[in-house]
Write a structure and sequence with these properties.
alpha+beta, four-stranded mixed sheet, Ribosomal Protein S5, domain 2, 4 strands, 141 residues
Length: 141
């Protein structure tokens, strides 16, 4: 019995590996993260915000928001299937999360924001989604 993660001793001579030793990946260069405190994580909070919050519709997105007592912005995404593949849904989800992380979190007041893309958002480009979402969230109060 030994430790769980023991490494074999390095081989020498003709038994040695021709590969270079593994390199530790460095820490990220930037501190741009999507912190857990900035997410709406429970389904009941998503539902409450969607049903009780104020709403705005754009050509590709539906937004619902309401004030929260936490003192910082929290966001949640609801990406419906609409008969699309999992690959398309995940791509859309990643695009929206990136827009929120880079552009939206810094400019919003303390609100819970739920974003639900419409069927047309699957065909929209990243630039169109970014422009539409940043314009829609500029006037949230």
């Amino acid at each position: 019995m030994g430790t769980r993660h023991t490494l074999a001793p390095p081989q020498e001579g003709s038994q040695g590996s021709y590969r270079s030793p593994p390199v530790q990946t460095p820490e990220p260069v930037t501190n741009e993260r999507y912190p857990r405190r900035a997410r709406i994580t429970s389904g009941s909070e998503l539902t409450t915000c969607w049903e009780a919050g104020r709403r705005r519709r754009t050509s590709h997105l539906e937004l619902a928001w309401r004030h929260n007592p936490t003192g910082h912005t929290r966001t949640g995404l609801i990406v419906p299937r609409y008969g699309s593949t999992a690959v398309a849904r995940n791509r859309l989800r990643r695009r929206l999360r990136e827009i929120v992380r880079r552009d939206i979190l810094r400019q919003l007041p303390a609100v819970d924001l739920v974003i639900r893309p419409r069927r047309s958002a699957y065909a929209a480009s990243f630039a169109v989604l970014r422009a539409e979402l940043t314009d829609a969230t500029k006037t949230l109060t």
